[in-house]
Amino acid sequence: AGNVSILCGEGCTLGTVSGEGQINVNSAVTTATQYGGVWSTNGSGAITTLTQNGGVIQHNSSGTITTATVGGTVDCSNDSSARTITTCTLSKGGRIVDPLNTLTFTNGIARAAGVREVVAN
């Protein structure tokens, strides 16, 4: 639900996290599906599969995101740690904010079907 607030500390084992609201994760996640709200990743926890259908992820973790489908905002502006997204697909409404140039895209950024415009500044 949109009014949920969850905090997961270091060493927590997270299989599937799905929803919206405020989620603060300090550990690895196998599958994350975001529909809205503000999620924060911290520390060095990795995400195996991220499907973002809206909302904002404040990506403050040095952990790798193996597969990301970005349909909201991935914001890396609050942390200068180097980080990697191995396979990234930008969906309609997707936005990646990386003013400190900390993200490495191993396989580049692909556009999902129906995405006709990508803007960079």
Summarize the structure.
This protein is mainly β.
What overall form do the CA principal axes indicate? globular
Number of strands: 13
Rg is: 13 Å
Proportion of helical residues: under 10%
N- to C-terminal distance: 34 Å
**Which blocks of ≥5 consecutive residues have pLDDT under 50?**
none
Please indicate the percent range of residues in DSSP E strands (runs of 2 or more).
over 45%
The overall average pLDDT, rounded, is 91
Helix/strand/pairing class, anyone?
mainly beta
Topology as a string of helices (H) and strands (E): EEEEEEEEEEEEE
Tally the helices. Answer: 0
Largest sheet: 7 strands, parallel
List the helices and strands and how they pair.
Layout: E1 5-8, E2 14-19, E3 22-25, E4 29-34, E5 38-41, E6 47-52, E7 56-59, E8 65-70, E9 73-75, E10 83-90, E11 95-97, E12 103-105, E13 109-111
Parallel strand pairs: 1-3, 2-4, 3-5, 4-6, 5-7, 6-8, 7-9, 8-10, 9-11, 10-12, 10-13
